[in-house]
Amino acid sequence: MEHEPVLAGRVAELLAPALSRGGVVVDATLGRGGHAARILAEAPRARLVGIDKDGDALEASGANLAPFEERIDLVRDDFKNVAAVLERLGLASIAAFLLDLGVSSPQLDVSERGFSYRADGPLDMRMDRSQELTADAVVNLYGQRELARVIARYGQERFAARIAAAIVRARPVSSTATLAGIVKEAIPAATRRHGRHPARRTFQAVRMEVNSELEALEVALPDAIEALHVGGRAVVISYHSLEDRVVKRMFAERASGCVCPPDLPVCACGAEATVRILTSKPVQADADEVGRNPRAKGAKLRAVERLTTGHPEHRLQ
Predict the structure, then answer these.
(1) Which 3-state string (H, E, C) describes 36-95?
(2) Which DSSP category does 20 fall into?
């Protein structure tokens, strides 16, 4: 089945004003290039820097973006290194930035990647298959308390302690199907009968630990906003509350400007707002899109526009 990028039309629409006169757009989670293709088609003067740490994704995106090959640079790297990537490419500023977080449908569909609790595969879950840490190491080598912490923090799983204890008792855990079964049995039967797959939160937590996803977001988003020239725009699509909370907080901090203590009656810091929030509420997919692409159901899109910068040479002429 062909992969459909989430909220692709809304992404292109929000970035269009920043790219109307050309400039560089960074898709820092390029995947198969679905968003990038839509953006490049609707912004014929724009150039793309596509970043992904998944070698398979970069290979696929190169083929999918072949019609635009003269306007693209593809880079294998972690999106947390966006500032270093831009420096290597000699780019002082950019017009637009996109992050589409989480695991992609093609990654989930390949059982050998180990992301899915619905198909049997190795405990891998690495987006960058050259890194050392795997899901196998998290599941089989972490201490019980540390494993429970990971499941509780990243999965927001209320039965994290029970699940961690069950995993430790069952070690060595050899596959995704085995892990899913252990988690299912560790959760009370009454809870298992309702809602989504009982292993969903635990798999999410292990994946986020393996790929340091929240930590990467905390690093990348401030660097991306700093790289935008005045009038530049950033769009972020997240898929669960932890990610969305980070994005919302960072955007709000930069939109408020003042960093004085809240009990100070008058601003003393003189800090200016550096962005304008474009989405007062997160944009979500409508019923038609969710029907075509179930992955869009949990997506939340937030966007900002750069207002000011300390680098005059970055300003639009």
Answers:
(1) HHHHHHHCCCEEEEEEECCHHHHHHHHHHCHHHHHHEEEEECCHHHHHHHHHHCCCCCEE
(2) T
Could you give the CA distance from residue 14 to residue 12 in angstroms, rounded to a whole number? 6
The reported pTM is 0.91
Tokens 């992969």 label which residue? 3
**Structure confidence by residue, pLDDT tens digits, 223-270:** 999 999 999 999 999 999 999 999 999 999 999 877 777 787 787 777
DSSP track, 149-214? HHHHHHH--TTHHHHHHHHHHHPSP-SHHHHHHHHHHHS-HHHHTSSS-TTHHHHHHHHHHHHTHH
**pLDDT tens string 94-116:** 999 999 997 877 777 788 999 99
Q: List the domains of the chain with CATH numbers.
A: 8-106+213-314 (3.40.50.150), 111-211 (1.10.150.170)
Q: Which residues pair with 98 in a beta bridge?
A: 27, 235
Instruction: Name 39's Cβ contacts closer than 8 Å, sequence gap at least 6.
Output: 11, 12, 15, 19, 25, 27, 46, 48, 96, 98
Residues sharing a CB contact under 8 Å with residue 24, sequence separation 6 or more, in sequence order: 46, 47, 48, 49, 91, 94, 95, 96
